[in-house]
Each structure stands twice: as C-alpha cells, then as structure tokens.
Amino acid sequence: MKTKRKQEALTVTRLINEVLISQLSIPLRQIVNDVSFSKYTGNKRPDLLISEFEYDGTNDLQYIENLVAYAEVKDNCSVNDKDWHDAIRQGIDKSKKLKLPYFIITNCKTSIFYNASTKKEISLNGNAIREFQTIDILRLIKNRLKKSPNLCNIKTNVDSISTISESIFNKKLWELATVYRGISFKNNQHKIDFTIGFVSLEFFEEKEKLENRRDDNKIYWSDCRGLKAEAVVANLSQYISRLESETSFKEFKDLMEIVKIAITGISGKPPLINNTDAERIFDIIDSMHPLHGCGFDLFGAVYEMFASNKEKKEFGEYFTRRHYTYIFSKLLLKDELYFNNDRKFKVLDLACGTGGFLTESFKVLVNNYQSTDTFSAKARNFLSKDCFYGIDVKEENISRTKLNMFLVGDGHTNMESANTLTKDFKDIRFDYIITNPPYGNGTIKANTSSISTIRTEIAFLCKVIELLNIGGKACVITPDGVLENPSFKAFRKDVMEKCNIDAVISLPKFAFAPYTKEKTYALYFTKKGINNTKPQKNPIWMYIIDNDGLANSDKRFPTKLRNNRNGWMHDEISGWVSTVGDEKVGLLESRWLIYDDSKELGTSWVDEKGNHVKMRKAGFLNANDALNDRYCSLLPEYYLRNELGKIQHLKFNSIDDFIKNTEKKIKEVPKKTFSPKIQKTVKFQAKNVSVSNVFRIFSGNSGLTEEYIYSMLQHEGDDEYKLLTGSIDTTNLKVVYTYTHPINKEKKIFTYKGEGIHIVRKGKAGHINYLPDGNYSLNDDAYLLCLKENIKYDISLKWVFYTQKHLFSEYASNSDNGTWNKSGFLKYALLDIPLREEQDLIVEKCDIIGRQKRYLKDIENEMKLFLDDFF
After folding, report:
1. Which end of the chain has the lower number of beta carbons within 10 A, N or C?
2. pLDDT digits (tens, 9 = 90+) for 424-443
3. Its pTM surpasses 0.90
4. Helices in 739-817 by DSSP H: which ranges?
5. Of 766, 633, 764, 749, which is closest to residue 697 (Cα–Cα)?
C-alpha cells in the first residue's frame, strides 16, 4: 500500500511539473497537492487543487473560496473501471463541500471533467475534454456552471481556447519523442512526416463523422481502440489502404504511405516500428482527439518539436508563429462578421508556407459566423471551397498547407504550387491578402516604376497591391528596410499614392527567433481606386508590441504571468478570461486603431525583468509628416521613441550654439581629470602569494535560468539580490529574491552580501567587474570572488580589479565562447601585494580616470544624438 501511494505521489508530482506548470503555465504556488483542508472535506483529502491565490499554509479560507479546479488522481486505473467510478463518487462529495460546480478525474494520462450536479461529462464547443486546461478555461468552466448548474457544453471564442490546446498537443509530442528514441528514422524530416501522417489518420474519421459519411461497414481509426498491438497494426494498415483508394483523401496518400510502410514494412523488409511501439503511438495520438478545429498550425508545432536547429533556420523562411498569425488574421477580417451568400470574397496568402495564416483566417471566420448565428451549411461550403487561396513555390509546402487546412476544418481546395511573382493570375483579384513573404535579393525585378530593385520583399509587396481588388485590404509582414531604407523612399511614397496605409505594427526583435532575428513589422493597408492617385491623407496608426507572450531573448520561453490574476503581464496579443469568468480580448485588439498615449507621454508597464517602464507605444502619424520626412520613414520607433534626439535639437538654435556648449562642458572637466602618473609599487606586504590563501570563489546556482527567474517574478522576498550572469555589463542587473532553489527544493538559492569581484565563467571568460558592497546571487555563467576571512594581508578588492585583470584573463580559454579555469587559478596564480597605502593611491587615481572616461563618453553621446537629429 505504501509503495502504491509513493508511486501515485510521484505521478502527481510529474503531472504538476510537466503539465500544469510547464505546459499550461499555472503558477506552482497556486497548486496544492494532498493537503488536509479538514474544515472543508473532513478526513478525506482532495488530491489536487488549483486556486486564484497562492497557498502559504495559513490562508485556507482565501485559498478555498477562490478555487478554480479540484481533481481526484487515480494512478494506474482505466477510464470507467472500478477505481475510476470510486473517484467519481469522491468527486461528487468533495466538490460539493468545496463549493465547486465541477470536478476532474485523472489517471495522469486521461483527464475527464464532470458536472457536479448532473454527473455528466463536460464538453467545450461540443468536444469532450480529455486533458487538463489553462487557468482561463478552468475559470470559464467554473463561472459558466455557477450561472447554469446543469450546463454540460460550454461555448466560447476566447483566443487561447481550441478543441485541443497547443500546449496539450506539445505535451503529447513530448510523449511521442520518448517512444521515438528507440526508432531509427532516416532523418528528422522522416520523423516529422510520419507524425503528421499518423495524426491525420485520426482526423480523417472525424471528418467523415462531421459530414455524415461514416459507414459502419468500413474499418476506421476508432476500430483500433482496445485491441492488442498486432491487431492495432493490422487494422491501421487496412484503414490506410481504404483511405488511399477514396477520392476525399487521395491527395494525402504520400503521408499515409509513410505511416503504412513504417509499421508494416515493404517488399519483404521488416517494419521500422515494432507492433508494441505502433500501439503506443496510436494510444498517444488517440488521446488527442478530437482534433477537428485544432486552431493552430499543427505542422509547425510538430516541426518545432522534432527539427534540428539548422532545419529550423531553414524552416524560418516559411514559418510564422501561431500567436501572430491568429491576431493579424483576426484584425484583418474583423469586419467579416456575418455570412452573406451574395458576397463571395477571396482570401489569399501568396507565400503560404505551411498555411499558418490561412488556417487562422479560416478559424477567425468560423468564429465570427458562429457568434452571429450565420454559420450555415452554405457558409461552411463557402469557406471550404471558395474562400481561401494559397500559393507557395515549394510543392511540399503546399501538401502541408492542404493538410493543415484539412485539419482545421477544410478550405484546402485552392492551394497551388507556383512562383507567385511570375504566375499569371489573369483576372482573379482578392479582397484580403495576408502573407509573410521571403526577404532578401531575388532574381525577379519588382514591378514598380519608383525604384529598380530585385529585393524579394519589395517585389512581393508590389504583387500584393496588384492582386488586391479596389477597397481590398492586406496585412504583410515586412522587414524594417522596406519602411526606413533611404533607397526605398520613392517606393514608400508610391505605396501611399496607390494605397491608404492603415496601421504599422512593430514586432519584437525576437518575434521569429530562433528562425531569424530580422526586425519585422506588420503593414496594414487598403487599396485605393484607379483614379485616386493623390498621396494618402488619412493618419497612420502606429503601435509597438513590446511583449508577445514569449521571452525577448533567444530562449523564447512562455511568459504567462498574470497581472493581479487577470490579464497577462507580458502578452499584448492573447485573449484571456477574468477571475469572474468574463472573456476578454488581448491588448492589441482592444487598442486597435484607437489607442494613443501621446497625452500621457507614454504607457507604463513592468517588463519581464521586473523593471518599471514608461515609453510611447501607440499613436497617430499625420500622413503629410511621413511624406515630408527626409526619407519618408514609416517606422513606429522613429516617431514614437525618438524623443531624446528631438529634445536635444530643441535646446540649441544652431550648430554653432551646440559647439559652444560642448566646448564649455569640456573646459568644465574637474581638476585632476587628466591621466595621473601612477608610480610603480616599491613597497610590498608580500610577493608570490598563492591566490588560494587570499580569495574565496563562489560558484553559481545550477538551474537559475531566465525562465525560472521569470516564473518567480511576482514572489518577492525580504531582500533583493542582484543576479550575476555571463554578461560583462553589470550596470543594470536583474533582481532576484531568496527563492527556493530550482533543483534542490529543500534549500534556497545561494546569495552573498558584501563587496566582491564578478568573474565571467562562460563567453567572455575571465572578464572581471568590481562589485561594491551589496546583495548578490549568481547563475552558472558567473563566479563571485571575495576575500577570505582573517587573512594576514590588507587588500583592496578595487585594487585587484584595476591592476590584476591580466591575472584573471590568463586562466580563460582563447575561444569566442571560452570558459574560465577556476581550479587552475586557485592552484597556480600568484599575487604580489603592495602596502595598503599604495593600493589606495592607485585606486584613487584610477577612479579619477574612470570618472573622466564616463564624463567624456556622455559628451560624445550627446554629440552623436545632436548630429543624428540635426542632419
């Protein structure tokens, strides 16, 4: 019995860490496992609770009154067996005492939600829930059932909600990755295509059910459930053979054939995947259903999981992250709320890649029509066959786009492999175009008389304008050069004559990392009439996205902290559900074309490092100001955040006035600012002293990653500690608190109080910084050096910093990404120690030089700002 409980506790711990925290971003301190709340449930402990508030061991009432979920955990049981039904009885009893209108039963593989009043399963948008959900959906379920206790199907259009959430899908991919470790795929692409093909098999049955074409006399995916491994493979093989012969699925034959060969073999060769592994893969994918309306780029998610870094960089040519494809599609199509059988508009992506923009556009229109009760059979037929068009030069991308569209609901009919820039579209024109075209030099000249260029992004932008109907709208992702390169000034004016630029949205630098770090923008515009060639008069709305829900670094981990348990702290894109169950749209959507923070001189927020920030984010640019600008720049940063240069320019009437002011400042440099002569040391306390007799060196905290620090951002402690990393700049260090250690939960992270020297361990190894008396912590990329206690020498650490840099650099490897040899330093490094008064004299003079350097640097920066703005 003890062994069983221990195993169950381990399983629950993994569920909490790997699913609730890592995949669903539910804060650890809001999750309670196996804690006795006897006042509420007597001696029967609820296995797992999730609340709006953190639990500190003393706030039982606050925690329980704000519960959003309660689950009974039954390890090693099956759905609907004896243990499962016992858990349901406990769930009914405990949910009543906890005053929750629903409960969850899980075996840590499958999780089913039950209405506490009706005892029936709860579905979301008509689909049964089989996995834990985000805190938004938990809130939604709780509050909808509070209002309607007998409700079993919950309908919603919140951005973050889909039939199978992307985070849960990623969890399933991790499970597949575990199975794949024992399988020798040819390469990553083979693994990716096999996965997509296997996933599609489950969906094909869903598709036939949706269209009322399911024939009980035929074999299906669901016929494999509950069978032994050998029978699963036999049934899947028959199922694939049937699908390959039927018209509806013939175009996906290649992917299905990859699956069939892998599990059954070919031409006498044994199968790549044995029956046991094939059954395990089937069970994992089967637990994903239903996949219909999955709401994200399924191929992109699989590619992100299984592709190598090199492949991802290549893949970046045609991949746009889902949270951008969704919001940009939603904003472009926001006026298409009602289905009108007499209005047959067309949506095009002329560089569709794997179909991310098209799948999201399909989903947006379905949601729009459902919200207005106009999603009829005719509407579905229109979206499936007549609305969406996709073009890509790569045939394999079109195959993936078709499958992605098929999985999201259909609309794959008009997908074509072709070179968009040379294709003859004849008289076909489009009402909406949304695309992320390739960038860089191409071979085809852009179709414009304003400039002569073979830049691909310019050529595609010209093609977009050409293919739009009059009054048609477009959203094009474009690099910064299109909006600011002086060589393209005439082209920007040409665009403003042919179109009205409605909005320019600045994306973060790392928006598409690790695929590319190209600075990009979303350009929204409307095509004018042929006779209207006068320059644009309408103001242009500009917005800068600073936080997109992922870290602004190469790591790109999810940043899902809540602002007072409501909206996102660092995500301006995603929708959310409030603590009272109200569905809210994301910040960008709520601010779209109306937000202007010019009167407030900026918008305030707390960034992902915990710093309070106030900067301009949004406002309107008078079109004439852009047209009259020296380079006709359209960059939001230029108009919204170039304030320092403008202020500098206003201070001076002329360049001569500025020169006089600068000369005056140089004359006012304090005395003793010229480099003093530092005499050589002649008197020593000791020579050839081993540094191990003088210094202690502390190593960093393992696991103290950016993601862990971010996750603890809201959990402030009594003391702040500046975090030392591999960065050579220690002027603006991140602040951390006395957190629980990320690896050893029984202890706190290591901290240090006092004076010290920061040594870079990795990267610019051996670089040192002086640390004045203060509170410090450090990660694995840094060391912290301090003086040993009760040493017999009188030493200034500042003197060490100024005069002994060469000693530290000697123990660093010479590569660009070198490491510092702590052991070698302590074993071999020797130090000559002058008298303390001589150390202090050197420190005093070096401090003077440092002040001089900073003073002159400030003058140099001021001169640069003035010149940049003046000219």
Report:
1. N
2. 998 899 999 999 998 888 89
3. no
4. 797-803, 805-809
5. 766
